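[09:14] KT: can someone run the structure on this one? pasting the chain below
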Amino acid sequence: MEKKFGLIGSTVSHSLSKAYFDEKFFNEGLRDYHYDLYPLKNVDELKTLLKENPDLYGLNVTIPYKEQVLKFLSDIDPFAKSIGAVNVIKIMNGKLKGFNTDSDAFLESVAKWFPNTEGSKALILGTGGSSKAVQFALKKLNIAFKLVSREKTLGDYTYQDLEKNPTIISTSNLIINTTPLGMTPDMNAMPPIDYELLGPTHFVYDLIYNPARTKFLQKAEMRGTTIKNGLEMLHIQAEKAWVIWNN
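[09:31] RB: done, structure tokens below
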């Protein structure tokens, strides 16, 4: 019996999810399983997508719909509800249930990479659905964090605040980009921070994995920081999604 899965987002051509699941289905002999990319101009197009694809069993959700998709769900896993964002949808009998595998995937990935010592401080760039998952993980790890947003009302700091007060960056030893800045195809974009303030004591994590080294990571690496992209996180969350779809 054919089973379809896929990824929804405003831009999905950059995603490696299809390649990941295509390989998985091939290796496991699941010839009737298919994974496709579904770019949606707005989240309301989800209704048409579901209507036209009755054999859809599960969806991954990427920027910017991790919060917007909540209104379409019949049910939401308590963990995802507490985060306030969904990146996995399970479809059963026309009903949609939302889950979040981003948060635990980020936690697993960062916990074995970042030396979490007493007094560690994180700076999270961005306040969207991915940021919410990261925030939840950092709380579990007891890492204090502040949010940076373009709008003062959404975060603790604006990018202008970082300019005025250089100690914010210099004293934050973990900096995480949860924005799409620098993602394929707009690879020259990067968060507007002062990279000269970074040094060997900093750990810089970019949730983006395509390209493998964004301008954000390149600039940080030139200052001697330890860097990591989001590829491992993608793989971990994909496996967690697979468990949900098959449970």
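[09:33] KT: thanks! The chain has two domains: 3-100, 103-232.
[09:34] RB: yep, looked fine to me
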